[in-house]
Amino acid sequence: MSGSIPGWLLRHQITVEAYQGDGPYGPVYGPPVAVRCFLDEATRLVRDPSGDEVTSSSTAYCPLETVAPAKSRVTLPAGRRTSVIAALRRDGGGLPTPDHLEVQVL
Predict the structure, then answer these.
(1) Can you give the three-state secondary structure of 53-89, one letter per residue?
(2) What are the distances in angstroms from CA 33 to CA 41, 54, 91?
(3) pLDDT tens digits, residue range 1-43?
(4) Which of 3, 79, 86, 104 has its CA 20 to 30 A from that of 58?
(5) Residues 68, 85 contacting (CB under 8 angstroms)
(6) Is residue 42 within 8 Å of residue 102, measured between CB atoms?
(7) In angstroms, how far is CA 44 from the centroid of its own chain?
(8) Are 45 and 53 in contact (CB under 8 A)?
(9) Are 67 and 35 in contact (CB under 8 A)?
(10) pLDDT tens digits for 90-99?
């Protein structure tokens, strides 16, 4: 039986404005949504959707149903605004794993 990340691990809260595409005046974002997560503020090298290596400042481990595509805006608990590099589904497909969305931010 699969499951999500236990609620007691979701100690942090970020705000996500999901990227919806480009409009005539620049990027278009959805309304701000508060998301409970486990935030790991460690710098590491990751790959963006085009395959280029970039430096991620933090990774948020969120419930699997979180909507945070690449280029979404994120506000971290300390108030810093950043953007999503990549959002990776970690779904065990029925295995007993903590299913979640790994959100890597600049």
Answers:
(1) EEEECEEEEECCCCCCCCCCEEECCCCCEEEEEEEEE
(2) 20, 26, 22
(3) 457 888 898 999 999 999 999 999 999 999 999 999 999 999 9
(4) 3
(5) no
(6) no
(7) 15
(8) yes
(9) no
(10) 988 888 788 8
In which residue are the tokens 């419930």 written? Answer: 63
Amino acid letter, 20? Q
Cα maximum dimension of the chain: 46
**CA–CA distances in Å: residue 96 to residues 1, 2, 47, 61, 93:** 5, 4, 27, 17, 9
Nearest partner of 14 among 94, 84, 71, judged by Cα: 84
H-run or E-run covering 24: none
9 φ, ψ (degrees, to nearest 5): -85, -15
What does the alpha-carbon distance between residue 71 and residue 82 come to, in Å, rounded to a whole number?
A: 9
Q: Cα dihedral sign for 39, 74, 45, 64?
A: positive
Domains of the chain by start residue, with CATH: 3-105 (2.40.10)
SS3 category, 32: coil
